């Protein structure tokens, strides 16, 4: 035992010496503090070199602790091109646990001379055996800064003796998928980009065989790649889809700037088509975000009006399709849709009252949705911004697989259960994935013979408006009831309640941003004018009661 401990001690000293030397090549600017949030770290790329090196260190520790491969993705998603960021990926392809988010913040903000102390502190707290091997998968998006920043991650891993696999340019969901494939020893799929394309395209082709007489027009989809990694990967995937899908790719990165006047976030916030896309009347279009983990659909009608099909519409389409298949297959599985306070009131009413689907509301942030979706046999979750996926419990997958093999099933049951099996294979269950979600949506529309207009007509969104108010400290706002009610500052919720009463079919809520000193305001009502007016009045209340800074919010009209 003594020899083992002496070896471990010697091993650690040598490793720490290397960390100490290498960290000098990635120095931390004095006084800079950053917080690891839902989206990991995100800021201007020039502030991130030391963070990347340290996340390499942390991922190595996490790998030793879990005895599994961990992922590190270098991306700032839908942020402007000059920003960058980093996210850690846990063994099953999920986001890193909250405890380790805390360690990430602690390690990132340690001044240069106390880095080793913080590192040792984590090792002691988590009782990590430093002689365990470590394996870290690293990926990056197409930002100019991503190459040097991902190199800093690789340096961090190697200085603690970890092994790396550098996937280079991949979408965020692809890296989540690789990590899950590796740690399930191939059960989830093959941990290569090619393996990802093969698994998804095979499932897609099996599903679209069930769509009768599709015309070329029905196979055509206009895709806005946000001038990012999603465009690159879509190009690579096209040959795998054969002639079952005709993708017209715009904002493919050949000329425009990442996320500039294009991408899912731009389309959702501006409620208009991205630049560089030529849309015909009624043509189905979709936009990815910068790292391809969000998607929104849209079209223009014969009057030239723009129609957005956001995360709520996507969740409704997919959950109603799955519910029908479960009925046809005679499977008694509980399906639920997990929403946040941002979900349009019409979608909630349609799901609960018409489709009789369980709806659960949770705090904003993908990890809250993902966690809540795990409580059901089948959990469908999409944020309104188009980030989401479907989770199938192990028990549900087992039941579906057993039914596939059952020789006594009649034709209808057989078909339904085969469709369910292919749908499971098409969905990236680790995280929201624009490419996977797009293929699911395309398959569902094809099988049901629906156009974008038919899909849009399932229910009509209540007009809504989102605004933000800059405050001196966002922490003065505290919320409860899945962020639908404000607990502090005093009097704010009472004010909101009385404002809401003035309008028809109205509701409004406020919540602090997770990343900046801003309070986000949401309002919906029976007309756009009312929604705008309510949003403005609530913004004024926030400005006055929660320490607004700058000019008082101006009316929208």
TrEMBL record:
The keyword Cell wall biogenesis/degradation does not apply. Keywords: Acetylation, Carbohydrate metabolism, Isomerase, Magnesium, Metal-binding, Phosphoprotein. Gene3D superfamilies: Alpha-D-Glucose-1,6-Bisphosphate, subunit A, domain 3, Alpha-D-phosphohexomutase, C-terminal domain. The keyword RNA-binding does not apply. Its cofactor is Mg(2+). The lineage of its organism: Eukaryota, Metazoa, Chordata, Craniata, Vertebrata. Binds 1 Mg(2+) ion per subunit. This is Phosphoacetylglucosamine mutase. PROSITE patterns: PGM_PMM. The active site is at residue 77. GO terms for molecular function: magnesium ion binding; phosphoacetylglucosamine mutase activity.
